[in-house]
C-alpha cells in the first residue's frame, strides 16, 4: 500500500514547489463525495454576531460610524437610542438584568433600553421632506403624483435596508433578532436622522439616499391606463394641435421576436419614440416618452448631488406641492393608473405554512420515503457502475 502511494506521488506532475494530483483513487473519490453530501445534509453554519467576538468595542464602532456619516460632532450616547429597536428589551440577557454579558451593554450609558419608536417617526418626516424638496426643485414641471411616486421609491424599506448594510448599520443595531430584519435596519436609519441637527441630516440624505435616484426607472413611476390620451392633453396645452403616432421602423414582423419603433409626432415634430414587441406596446412607451418630455424629465437628466445642494434650496418654496394631474390635464382626461400585478405564489411561505400549520393537523401524506443523500459507493449503498480507471482502445 505504501509503495503504491509513493509510486503515484512520484508520477504526479510538479508545479513549482507543489505536487498536483489529478486522478484520485477509487476509495478517495467516494469518501470525498460522501463528506460533501453529509455537509449538505448538515446545512450551513449559523450566522455569528459581530458583537460576540472578543475584539468588539461598541464605543469605538459608534465613533467610527459617526465619522463615516460625517456626523462626528454628535455625541456617542445619542446614537444608542436610535440604534435600539423595541424587540431589544425582550431578549433574555436584557430582561433578566444580565445585560453586561452582551458586548454592546457595557457601561457608559449603554445599559439604557430606550428604543427608537418616536425617533423613527421624526426621522421619517425629515427624510420625506428633504427628498420631496429636492425632487420638486429638479422636476418643477412634474405633477405631484410623480414627485410622491419617486419619493416612495427612495424612502422604501428595501432601499434603506441596502444603504444601512452599506454603511455598517447591521452590526451596530441592537435588536432581538439576528440577523436584523429589513424593517429594523430601515427604521434605525430613519431614527438616525432625528438625533442629528438639520444640516447634518440634509448632508446624510444628500450623500447616501438621493443619489439612488439614478437606479429608479422614471418611466414606470406613473403607469397610466391611457398614456396616449394623457400625453395628447399635455402637448395640446403646450400649443400643439395634431398628435399622431407613426411607425419609424420595424424588423422581424413575421418572426417570434418582432420589434417595432414608433414615434409620436406633434404638428409633424417628433416629440417621443420607443420600441416594443407589438404596435400597442410601442405606442404606449412612445407616449410615455413624450409625456416625460413635456414635464422636462429626460432620460439623461442631470442631477446635482453637491454637498450643499439641499442647503441652497428654498425650502419654503419647494415645500409646497406641485400641481396635481387633475389640475394639469383636466377632469375629462383618463388619468387612472394600471392596477399592480398580483404577486405569484411564494414557495418558501407555502412550505413553511405546510410544516407549521397543516402537517401538525393532518399529518404526513402517504408518499415514498426517500433515503438519505449519501453518495453511491459508500458502505450503505453500492455504486451502479465501477469507478475504474478507463482503458485506452485503438479505433481503426
Structure description:
β1 (14-15) and β2 (18-19) form a beta hairpin. α8 packs across α10. The protein has three domains: 1-37 and 357-396, no CATH class; 52-216, Ribonuclease iii, N-terminal Endonuclease Domain, Chain A (Orthogonal Bundle); 222-302, Double Stranded RNA Binding Domain (2-Layer Sandwich), CATH 3.30.160.20. The two termini are 38 Å apart. It is built from 16 helices and five strands. Strands 3-4-5 form a three-stranded antiparallel sheet. It has a two-stranded antiparallel ribbon with strand order 1-2. The chain is mainly alpha-helical and 396 residues long. It is globular and about 75 Å long. Residues 62-196 form the RNase III domain.
Rg result:
31 Å
Principal-axes shape call: globular
Q: What structural class is derived from the secondary structure elements? A: mainly alpha
Let me know the average pLDDT. 80
Q: How many alpha or pi helices?
A: 16
Secondary-structure element order, N to C: HEEHHHHHHHHHHHEEEHHHH
Please give the share of residues in helix. 40-55%
In the CATH scheme, what's the topology name of the largest domain?
Ribonuclease iii, N-terminal Endonuclease Domain, Chain A
Question: What's the quick description here?
Answer:
By secondary structure, the protein is mainly alpha-helical. It contains 16 helices and five strands. It has helices at residues 2-11, 26-42, 58-69, 76-82, 92-95, 117-138, 144-154, 157-166, 169-172, 182-195, 198-209, 227-237, 279-294, 315-318, 325-329, 347-362, and strands spanning 14-15, 18-19, 243-251, 259-266, 270-276.
Amino acid at each position: 500500500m505504501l509503495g503504491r502511494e509513493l509510486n503515484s506521488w512520484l508520477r504526479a506532475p510538479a508545479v513549482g514547489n507543489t505536487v498536483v494530483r489529478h486522478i484520485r483513487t477509487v476509495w478517495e473519490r467516494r469518501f470525498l463525495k460522501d463528506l460533501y453530501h453529509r455537509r449538505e445534509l448538515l446545512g450551513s453554519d449559523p450566522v455569528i454576531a459581530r458583537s460576540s467576538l472578543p475584539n468588539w468595542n461598541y464605543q469605538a464602532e459608534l465613533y467610527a460610524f459617526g465619522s463615516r456619516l460625517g456626523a462626528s460632532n454628535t455625541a456617542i450616547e445619542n446614537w444608542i437610542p436610535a440604534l435600539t429597536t423595541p424587540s431589544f428589551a425582550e431578549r433574555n440577557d436584557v430582561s433578566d438584568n444580565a445585560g453586561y454579558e452582551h458586548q454592546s451593554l457595557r457601561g457608559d450609558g449603554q445599559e439604557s433600553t430606550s428604543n427608537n419608536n418616536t425617533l423613527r417617526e421624526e426621522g421619517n418626516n425629515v427624510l420625506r421632506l428633504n427628498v420631496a424638496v429636492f425632487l420638486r426643485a429638479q422636476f418643477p414641471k412634474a405633477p405631484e403624483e410623480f414627485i410622491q411616486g419617486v419619493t416612495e421609491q427612495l424612502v422604501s424599506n428595501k432601499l434603506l435596508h441596502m444603504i444601512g448594510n452599506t454603511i455598517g448599520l447591521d452590526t451596530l443595531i441592537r435588536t432581538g433578532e439576528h440577523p436584523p430584519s429589513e424593517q429594523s435596519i430601515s427604521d434605525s436609519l430613519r431614527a438616525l436622522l432625528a438625533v442629528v441637527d438639520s444640516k447634518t441630516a440634509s448632508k446624510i440624505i444628500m450623500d447616501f439616499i438621493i443619489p439612488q435616484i439614478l437606479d429608479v426607472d422614471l418611466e414606470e413611476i406613473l403607469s397610466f391606463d391611457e398614456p396616449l390620451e394623457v400625453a395628447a392633453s399635455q402637448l395640446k396645452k403646450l400649443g400643439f394641435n395634431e398628435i399622431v403616432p407613426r411607425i419609424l421602423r420595424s424588423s422581424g414582423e413575421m418572426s417570434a421576436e418582432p420589434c417595432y419603433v414608433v414615434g409620436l409626432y406633434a404638428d409633424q415634430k417628433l416629440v417621443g419614440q420607443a420600441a416594443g414587441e407589438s404596435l400597442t406596446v410601442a405606442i404606449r412607451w412612445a407616449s410615455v416618452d413624450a409625456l416625460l418630455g413635456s414635464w422636462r424629465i429626460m432620460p439623461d437628466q442631470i442631477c446635482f448631488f453637491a454637498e450643499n445642494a439641499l442647503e441652497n434650496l428654498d425650502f419654503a418654496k419647494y415645500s409646497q406641492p406641485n400641481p396635481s394631474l387633475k389640475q394639469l390635464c383636466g377632469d375629462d382626461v383618463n388619468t387612472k393608473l394600471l392596477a399592480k400585478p398580483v404577486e405569484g405564489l411564494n414557495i418558501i411561505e407555502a412550505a413553511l405554512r405546510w410544516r407549521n400549520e397543516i402537517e401538525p393537523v393532518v399529518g404526513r401524506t402517504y408518499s415514498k420515503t426517500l433515503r438519505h443523500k449519501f453518495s453511491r459507493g459508500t458502505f450503505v449503498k453500492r455504486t451502479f457502475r465501477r469507478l475504474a480507471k478507463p482503458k485506452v482502445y485503438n479505433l481503426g
